[in-house]
Amino acid sequence: MKKRLLLIALIASFMLGCKNDVKKVEDNKNEVATEAESEEFDEHIKMTDAILSEKHEERTFGDELKKGAPAVDIKVVDLNGNEATLNDILSGDELTQIDFFQTTCKFCIQAMPDLVELDKRDDVRVVLVDVGESVETVKEFMKKQEIALPVVVDESGEIAQKYFISGFPTSVFIDKDGILKGGVVGYRAMDDMIEVIEDMNK
């Protein structure tokens, strides 16, 4: 009887040890995944910042698109297939943040909840512009992600070229008078974006 009880105790101790080891392995996996995601995010920021400083030095966006100058007009389509121009999507009362994205961009998706919150502010309106994808693809994406923001589609990528978009996401800021205020390439945390918006509103 004592031998049987001792055997049961040994088995229980072994099983508990295994369970703890499994938990440690899972915790380590989660920690590694978090570190990997953090490194990927850091690399994304470095890459997009490098692109910005190389191609958009002084944030002029090219010869025809300069900060402080009238923004280049655009022709896009909404999710119902209706054409829209820059005047159609700009806010008449506040700054408009035009966010260029793609449905397969990890950091674009990560930024969506923040964009929804930013759109609730009184000093900015957020409009999404998908680049190079079909209306149906974007419509399915918006439905799946449950993103309640106005969105238009630049299927040909022509508008992205006009605005010298070199990475996703990229936010371009245009004031109520249609003047280009500046832009930000890459995902930014909410606090950073609020600072950018406040700066663009000056």
Structure, explained:
- With 202 residues, the chain is of the alpha/beta class.
- It has helices at 2-55, 86-89, 106-119, 135-145, 158-162, 190-200; strands at residues 75-78, 83-85, 95-101, 124-131, 151-154, 170-174, 180-185.
- Strands 2-1-5-4-3-6-7 form a seven-stranded mixed sheet.
- The protein is globular.
- The termini are far apart.
- Residues 2-33 and 51-64 have low confidence and may be disordered.
Counting DSSP H or I runs of 4 or more residues, the number of helices is 6
Taking all residues together, what is the mean pLDDT?
A: 77
Low-confidence stretches: 2-33, 51-64
The helix/strand class is alpha/beta
Envelope shape: globular
Report the strand count: 7
Percent in helix: 40-55%
Cα end-to-end separation: 84 Å
How are the SSEs ordered, and which strands pair?
Layout lengths: L1 H54 L19 E4 L4 E3 H4 L5 E7 L4 H14 L4 E8 L3 H11 L5 E4 L3 H5 L7 E5 L5 E6 L4 H11 L2
Parallel strand pairs: 3-4, 4-5
Antiparallel strand pairs: 1-2, 1-5, 3-6, 6-7
Question: What descriptive keywords fit this protein?
Answer:
202 residues; alpha/beta; seven-stranded mixed sheet; globular; disordered N terminus
What is this entry, summarized?
The protein is α/β, with parallel strands linked by helices. The chain contains 6 helices and 7 strands; from the N terminus they run H-E-E-H-E-H-E-H-E-H-E-E-H.
